[in-house]
UniProtKB/TrEMBL annotation:
Full protein name: PEGA domain-containing protein
Record's keyword annotation contains Transmembrane helix: yes
Domain PEGA: 132-200, 204-271, 278-349, 358-424
Listed Gene3D superfamilies: Carboxypeptidase-like, regulatory domain
Short name of any one Pfam family annotated for the protein: PEGA
Domain of life of the organism encoding this protein: Archaea
Keyword Membrane listed: yes
Residues spanning the membrane: 432-451
PANTHER family reported for this sequence: S-LAYER-LIKE PROTEIN
Entry keywords, A to Z: Membrane, Transmembrane, Transmembrane helix
Amino acid sequence: MKCRLILLLLCIACATVWMTGPALADEAVVLPGEPEATILPVPTHLPGEGTSYYDIYTNVDGAAISFDGEYQGVTTGGILSVPVHTTGTPYSVVSAVKTGYNPTQRTLPPVPPEGEHTSVYLTLNPLKPVSGTLSVSSSPSGAAVYVNNVYYGITPQTVPGLTPGNHLVQITHSGYEPWSQTVGVTAGQIITVMAVLTPKQDQGTLTVRSNPSGAAIYLDSIYYGITPKTISGLVPGLHDLELTKAGYEDSVMRVRIYTDQVTTVSKSLKKISYPSTGSVQVTSNPAYASVFVNGVYYGDTKPETPLIVSGLAPGSYSVKATLTGYNDAVTSVVVNAGAATPVSFSLTPLSPDVAVASLRVTSAPSGAQVYLDNVLAGATPVTVPNIPPGVHEVRVTLTGYLEHRSSVDLSAGETASIDVNLDPAPEQSPTGIPAIIISFAICSIVLSCIFRRDKSR
């Protein structure tokens, strides 16, 4: 009778072990006769534990928050409340990342009591700018501005997007000596440059009038505008002067320029009874663009003054304007006899050189941590800017999923994209099986003892 009672109790124990085996898989199991049991680690964050909260404050919205590298969410309104269990292994470090800002982190304070909140403050500082700006002016104004031999317009002029370091600034103005200076540019700052120009010495002046007015003036084959016009800063000596106007005969003469004197020329133009040629009047924004008609250079445009190309036979012509630092502009025009055809160009700047690249990383599911060259860059979806060109290592991690690794070769000015489909981590084998095997072994030993005892009787 006693043996049967022992057998019943052991069977109940075995059934209990069978039912609770998975729950006890991570607890210590003590077999009869063992002096000590092996204590297995207790998992953190067991269901049903008490909950408290860390309130994470950031100075900017949209910052991705992580605890010990585990993504927790994004701040909204400058705050993210993260629930944690009051027991189990506490987190150590909180970090915040956002595109355009330097990542930051700090040590978490102790876990607050159940149901209570603890505030944690993180400050993200903007990334430092990578280029500077020049603000160029001159006395007198209206001078041409060149930076590193590239034309940027006339003074006053702002030149942005310059790399930090020394740059050569050159200023030129008709009638004045050229001015140049090496200027240091600092990232994120506007450097002011003021050029006081010196008038050229040993120069003369020419005043040209015509009847009717509006005739194009060419001095030594260089266009200077239309009559009436005063031209200063000329080299003393003999010069060839030509006046042209649609519907009138060209007038060609030689004039002498004297030092520090004004030479005046007045000319009555002879009208053509039956004009056989026409002209085009070319303007550009900005000015000082070189003008070509059917591939032949005819001069440069001036501010608020058209460049007149006369003596053109009636028909179609290709007109092109070129200027350093700007895209070429080309158009087709029809020239009629005795008429002036207006042509206006609006030049577009060339795209500046880009010395860095960007990388956009997305994942399914989102919220994965992105490491670029083993440096945390944020949580997906994220765009990482200001990356030097070349090959870079990309690592994407998310709790419960297999880690993704790849490399990307970036070129200057490129914005590349990586889309990652994360694979779930494989499930672990059931942990309750050893307890079941132990239970069956105990039952087998006890039944064997009872069987031997009954047999002996």
